[in-house]
Amino acid sequence: MLIAQHQQRLQRGRTEMAAQTDSTRVDVLVLWVGVLVSVCFAAVLVRVVQLQIAPSDRLTMYAADRVASRPVEGYRGEILDRRGRLLSTSRLGYRVFIDPERIDREHVDDLIVRLSNATGVAAEDIGPRVLRTLSLNDDRRAGLPSASTESLAPLDELRRMLFGSADTDRGADGPGEVAFGGTEGEGRDEAAAKPLPLIRYLPVGRVLTDRQAAMVRAIELPGIHLERTPVREYPSGELVASLLGKVGFENHGLMGAELTLDEALQASNGTARYVRDASGRPLWIERGQWLPATHGEPQRLSIDLELQRIAYEELWRGMEDADAAGGRLVMLDPRTGEVLAMLDLYRDVGELPEFPWIDAEPEPGAPVPPPFDPRDPTRYRALAADPAREIHPALGRNRCVEDIYEPGSTFKPFVWSLVLESGVTTPDEIFDTEGGRWRNKFGRRFEDVTRRDEMTWTEVLVNSSNIGMVKGSSRMPAERLRSGLLRFGFGEQTGLPLPGESGGRVTSLKNWTHWTQESVASGYEIAVTPVQLARAYCALARTGTLAGTVPTIRLLAVEPGLANADAIVRALPADLVARTRQALRRVAAKVEEKMAESFDPPEDGWRYQMWGKSGTANIALGAPPEGKRRPRGLKNAYFQRQYNSSFVAGAPLEEPRLLVVVVIDDPGPEAIRIRHHYGSWVAGPIARRVLERSLTYLGVEPDVVSETESEQDRTPGRTVALQQ
What we know:
The protein is built from 25 helices and 24 strands. By secondary structure, it is α+β, with helices and mostly antiparallel strands. It has 2 domains: about 220 residues, Penicillin-binding protein 2a (Domain 2), CATH 3.90.1310; about 350 residues, DD-peptidase/beta-lactamase superfamily (Beta-lactamase), CATH 3.40.710. A hairpin with a 5-residue loop joins strand 6 and strand 7. Helix 3 packs antiparallel against helix 7 and helix 14 runs antiparallel to helix 20. The radius of gyration is 39 Å and the shape is elongated.
């Protein structure tokens, strides 16, 4: 029995030892398996990192097919008027394009017709471009490997990014071609040896309306696609077109405020990089692969859209009344220098002949042209051609800042006030005005419209006497008169942020003669833009400590109190400003008398006292075209019976809130025949109506008491109310 128990204990020991051995073996096996799995996992992880950071060239081609990048569009900044009204804004629209390689060639005709019905583009315009592109692709395919078609997708996308909203037909090789290569002279032979890529992008028409886009989506034919594209919209239409300008297909400003404010308006597109499946559908966006877009900053102009509309209506009415070929208007707030309205209009007056220049070098034996007849009543085309304006009003020149003209008598207040400032005369000194006709000691002849034997210096300005102005200005040294005019800002740009601004023209002191002195006194031999003239008149419109100073002209609205924080140029002593305005009030009163002959004044009369000055000057011929010269018999450089008729006005009298420059270009022959072509007849009424309506809109307190209000003031109830 003892032996049996001993054997059992030995057996149990052997079993326990075997179990311990098996357990040790399992632990070792598990350990090695774990190590092996960890090593494999680390190897896979290293390989993944290596593939992500530096994949082989063979894998890069496949990986690129699974990672896509799309721009996140940023919106160009809005342009607003001073009250926050929308002048231009951006949105995303749709445009249709054709992939010629995916269309069914057996149903091309059906595609063209249905696409024409949906987009409104004539089938005659779509068809030839599609057929020509198909033919070009056939020619190019002959030199391309069959497997290269799919690899062109990146080129197609880049082409859409570069030319997405531009018409194709680039170059003689056909639509949608994009040239790639090195620097000039480098790689050309290599590029010429390579086959041209197939054309995969053919845009059709312009941006679609929502209805048109829906009609395009309903076309169930292969090869027709819609793409999103930025659209710049102008809710105010042509009202401010010439001022705002235009945006090109790359969303950059082309002209006007869109160009000069382009840097602030520009948006920065973001980027979204995402992984996609084999069908191109997005799967996920990894952290850090989303870069948001930055939108452009909105810009608030000083323009008031309602004042612009008032000015447009009255300027167009005045152009029609005068049968004029064009008109310009600038409205400023003289206190701040802000531009409140600006217009440049053309009017169709029929086909006008060109001025009869003659050949500079006529052919031998050619008949000699007859001498030019100064009495020729022909109305020639006096306004410079502006073909871009015919495409779109926003593409034309802005003649308010770009085109100069001789201001005529609207320039006289500056010479008049400078002569008075110099102390060589007094307001009441009497000048011999020679009965309205005079030839000076140099033999030059002068005439006045208002013919009198004598006038005071104040009456010389009120009656716009050329003779009196010449006699008064001749007392000043040339350098003093010229330097005084420069203080008003003539001969330099105003700094208005619009492209193409002219600085005007002031004769240099070296070339300044007695003839120049006499001409400048009457508003000739000096050239200005309407904006330049308006800025100078602000010196006569400002009051208080700013009286006689020239402001900085502004196109962007300014915060109250900040308008005059910059340097100010003083053009006149303050005490002369009010005296000049009082004289100009008498000029405006004469205009109102003339208006009463042709137009019914308001029932209760004018509510604001207007002051201003008229001007009428012959339109300059300019330089002859190349290869031409002036005809014989032409004694000066002007159209003989064609004029720039203008009026500059401000109101109210004591505290002017608005200043308006109106220029009527080339009034019609009938106005000239009845002698109603002068600035006081054709431009003065426009300024009068614009000021009256504009000041009422702004809520400015009237400075003229109507007869009705005067009667109310006399009633006891009215008196008590005033006392309270």
